[in-house]
Amino acid sequence: PSLVAIVPAAGVGSRMEADRPKQYLTLDGRFILDITIEKLLSCALVSQVIVAVSADDPYFSQLSMANHPKVLRVDGGVERADSVLNGLNKALALGAQWALVHDAARPCLLVDDIERLLEQVAADDDGGLLAAPVRDTMKRASPDGFVDHTVNREGLWHALTPQLFPTKSLQRNVAAALAASIPVTDEASAMEWAGHHPKLVIGNDTNIKVTRPADLKLAGFYLQHEDN
Ligand code: C5P
Question: What value of ipTM does the predicted structure carry?
Answer without folding.
Answer: 0.95
